[in-house]
Amino acid sequence: MINYKIAVKLIKQLDWKLITTVLIIFAFGLVILSSATHVNSTGVYDQLYKQGLAFLLGCIMIGLILLVDYNFLGKYYKILYLVSVILLAIVLVPGLGKEMGGARSWLNIGPLHLQTSEIVKLTFILSYAKIVESKRDRLDTLKDIAPLVVYALPFILLLLAQPDLGTAIVFFCIIAAMIFTAGLNIKLIKRAAVILVVSMPIMYLMMAPHQKIRIEAFLHPEDVTLKGNYQVMQSMIAIGSGGVTGKGLYNGSQNQENFLPVQDSDFIFAVVGEELGVVGMVTLIALFAFFLVRIIAIAQEAKDFYGTLIVIGVMGMFGYQIIQNIAMTVALIPVTGVTLPFVSYGGSSLLTSLANLGLVLNVCMRRKKINF
């Protein structure tokens, strides 16, 4: 049995500022979701109940994750790697995988649809951090970095095969954050940037038709016939009409009259802009900024480099999703189906966010040695 005194000491070492910030963001999100789902006019609270249930399950998941030392999980990184690859590959099997939103990323389990890449985000971070840890401060040449690229390549290729470019970019950000933290030579970073720019035309040719359309739409924002531009235009109208203080909760015409598409998920930030204005948007962005700052602080305080890499990987995931979701609502980045963590509606994404938060707290609570 776990020693009670030790358990209390571990709990005291949790970052309660981070936990409080997440609770505030989630509460903020529930209020906005209530407007995005029109509970004020329909009286239907189904989505709010489901979101609340997902949050409760996520909190239980965090509790279970905290029970196991992250270093113990790291010992099984090879098994986690294999399980991760299988989970990404199984959705490509006819009869098992289900296509939704243009990507075959979902697994049919009776009446439930599970997006396996959401689970893999957690298992990949645990396994990849172990590999990167072994290369710390030894990433000066292409030969040094090659094993890390080979290790990560199956994940990117399987995601592109679905095709799910949005999630592939999330994984790329996780990978890049970890490798950079491990001491990647600045010369390699410059070379990678040049290669990325030069290879963009080839990458474009390899994209699926619906992905090419999104790029075309981003380059020609005035053409509303291109898929994605109508959504972005309505989003910008909503945000622009909100002004400084907004139209007031439940009073946004773009939202309430359903001109704004996917307002409960992908474009929920536009609801914030229309109904709470600049004040609401800045408040939410400030909360997310503090959230990321606390995660970085935990990474710096970790007792070992493996813990640091785990936290940095999670930070890369959250950082990209936050920037991508907010930026696409104002046409700064092409539209992808990336949700706003803890705010957008969606049980899978919320559970994934909380599970990865659990990894961060796991590292946090074990940053100091506890005397047994």
UniProtKB/TrEMBL annotation:
Keyword Cytoplasm appears in the UniProt entry: no
Origin: domain of life: Bacteria
Xref: Pfam families: FTSW_RODA_SPOVE (PF01098)
Keywords annotated in UniProt: Cell shape, Membrane, Transmembrane, Transmembrane helix
GO-annotated molecular function: lipid-linked peptidoglycan transporter activity
Topology versus the membrane: Multi-pass membrane protein
InterPro entries: FtsW/RodA, RodA/MrdB
Record GO biological process: cell division; regulation of cell shape
Major subcellular location class: membrane
Subcellular location(s) per record: Membrane
Transmembrane segments: 18-40, 52-73, 79-97, 145-162, 168-186, 193-210, 267-293, 305-323, 343-364
GO cellular component: cell division site; plasma membrane
UniProt-recorded name of the protein: Rod shape determining protein RodA
Organism: Asaccharospora irregularis DSM 2635
